[in-house]
Design goal:
flat; mainly alpha; 126 residues; 4 helices; two-stranded antiparallel ribbon
Length: 126
């Protein structure tokens, strides 16, 4: 039997595929609109289910606080993708924005993993 999370994820991915199909057939997208669509898609696919369940206060499989942390991580991924696609080649001295965004992304992911590991360890000791 499928869990509620899985059913919601299937629904979110199906909706995203449908929106993509309709948008690409109906509206010619420019480069910036395409980047925004990709970033929004990343966020919807990665965090859509968690956002719905966190707003509903559902902690059936994950604590709500863990869902919010994951949503924050997915938001950072979407913003990094958006900035990468729009201003990633801009140079700030000898460093490009792309390099800075890679650093931000790396620090965010490592921080998230360390925090989740710590939270899981503390929860197991209770």
């Amino acid at each position: 039997m499928l869990s509620r999370d899985t059913k919601l994820q299937i629904g979110v991915v199906s909706a995203v595929v449908l929106v993509w199909a309709l948008l690409f057939r109906a509206v010619p997208l420019g480069p910036v609109a395409s980047v925004v669509l990709v970033a929004a898609t990343y966020f919807a696919v990665l965090a859509g289910t968690h956002l719905y369940l966190a707003l509903a206060g559902d902690s059936e499989t994950l604590p709500v606080a863990a869902r919010w942390r994951y949503i924050g991580l997915a938001a950072v991924v979407a913003v990094v993708e958006l900035l990468q696609g729009t201003v990633g080649r801009t140079s700030l001295g000898s460093v490009t924005v792309s390099h800075l965004l890679g650093g931000v992304f790396g620090v965010t992911v490592v921080s998230y993993l360390v925090y989740e590991a710590r939270a899981g360890h503390l929860a197991s000791r209770q």
